Amino acid sequence: MKTAELSAATTPAPAPPNGLLSRTSSKIRSDHLEKLAIVYVRQSSPTQVLEHRESTARQYALAEQAIAFGWPRERVLIIDEDLGKSGRTAEGRSGFQRLIGEVTLNHVGMVLGLEMSRLARSSKDWHAFFEMCAIFGTLIADADGVYDGNDPNDRLLLGLKGIMSEMELHIMRNRLERGRDHKAQRGELFFSVPVGYVILPTGGVDFDPDEQAREVIRLIFDKFDELGTLYGLFHWLIRNDITLPIRPLSGPKKGQLDWRRPKICTLANVLGHPIYAGAYSFGRQSADPKRKLSSSKYRPRLPMEQWKVLHRDRLPAYITWERYLQNRERIKQNRNRFDCQGAPRSGVTLLAGLLVCGTCGQRMRTLYHAHGKAQYACNHRLLTGEGPRCPGLAARAVDGLIAQQVLRALEPAALELSMQVHADVEQERQRLEKHWQQRRQRARYDVELAERRYQAVDPENRLVASTLEKRWEELLSQEKQLQEEYDRFLRQTPVGLSAAERARITALTVDIPTLWNAPGTTNLDRKQIVRCLVERVTVNVRTDSEVTGVTIHWAGGYESQHEITRPVRRYEHLRDLEPLLDRAAALRARGQTIRQIAEQLNAEGFHTPMGRGRIKVPMVNRLLQLRGIVPNERAHDEMLGRHEWWLIDLADALKTGREKLQTWAIRGWVHGRKTPVQGCWILWADKDELRRLRKLIAKSRPGKNRHASELKIPKKQPGGR
After folding, report:
1. For this structure, is 294 an active site residue?
2. Which of the residues 22, 30, 44, 418 is marked catalytic?
3. 587 near 600, Cβ under 8 Å?
């Protein structure tokens, strides 16, 4: 926009136009005339600038009014940078900001505007402006008079005019919004339509007339049904070089079909827009006033029940309404949240997002540990503080049960699965082949059109002919490149399945367990198979038993009950603890040693809490302690001989660590032995040994010289030991 300063003129000033003020005003003083007179010009929109030219001319004519007030022509400044900008806010109005800057620099004697609404339609901006004018003694003039911000009556008038100007804006906005909402209620309001649709000249909406554009939209919905995730669909389109038919709303290609690389946001809009199910909708996004102050253009989606308008079966549809609702729910469940299943990922667990805690009813999370081990855990009560944490379980036990049941359920349908796989492979290849043929046909048409344009031009007009020839050559090059890509596609994916491929598919589908365990079958593939058959799995984990109840909720409503044995850490968590304790106590009563008891328990089929490995001597000691049979050998000092110490007592006497003495006993640096049942260490040390051990401890401290080798040799015990 321009900011013009009127040049000086020698001719007398003309009379003010009709409707403007008289030449003089008692409020204008000589100090006002020494400063600038600024004429502020604004129209609310570009349409008003083009169509309401009389209003714009009247605003420019205020420069003559300033001259009539006594300002020299060269001291009158016109600021018209805000033509085509709304006055509801001061943001984005560079002309208004410049006007405020000139006033605060005390350069302005008078500000002229056709009416107060030209300066601002916001009471906040308007009151701040005339308060600033009052501070610096700047007058304000419009078609009705001259106002001084320091005069009480003028302040009252200025305040009332600002309120009326703002209210007028609200009235106009309400009138327009009501008209818009009324048209939306009839299902006739269209600002734009998503890909795959066009707005007709009559104002209605129909499918895109391009056949390839319609086929791509149908392909998007079909592949989403198959893949189940938005990102999976996106990567499949990229991998197969499928572009989306976009008709830009602005720019040099406005309204023309333009094939562009897929974007996640575009695919999300296709899957989430109700127009593809034939429904007209309006008001699907929030209109929070606070977001007007934010630089972000993001407006969150509202729930369907809060939409202003929703009319079903009004527009041409690509999918049914039920399928649209299923897609919405599937996208919602793919979110990584506690209340959602989440999309299947590449982890080793089968039931991520499907496993439900039978204690609190919440979904269980998957935790991965070292060496690829996984565990299902429920943290709901821990996070909410409602009680103790629900018990979890190792993933391998319940995953093995689900895999076994799923494979058993698939066995009767092996032949049907084989036929369906054949049909799916053939259908996908046919669709890709059709898409490539449409792309080749479009490229051929573009080349022929460029050729006809080149042939139709006058050969003497080389400026035009050279441009058309260059465009023709570019399209020929693009067609050749497309043909090369199509040839590579045919080599990688033949049009039909060979006999060997058909036989291989049939063999794999008949032997489903082999296909399930095949190296080429990924964890993601297994999870997708499970989700096709299983809605959720509920486990009832008990802290006093290793046996866990499992309920499989199959697709279709059928439920099956099962039990699994989970590994636990302690014997107290075993359901059959009492029979195990009774058997160990009975064997001990017969006079068997601890080692004999361990061997007998292993032979009779008893197992450790984790369910892996054999029962060993320390475990038998633990079992007998639970029964109160094995005494605490550490409490019986009669087991000590002359100059013998319990390990802990000798460590306290030498003021050193127990681990160090135990290590020395194992290495033979000190005489020692273990008790027969609990394996407690008993060390021998007389006065000479105590002195040697103290020297050895002193030499082994950090910062000291390495101890002498002779200190490592213990004194012989009496009796030659």
Report:
1. no
2. 44
3. yes
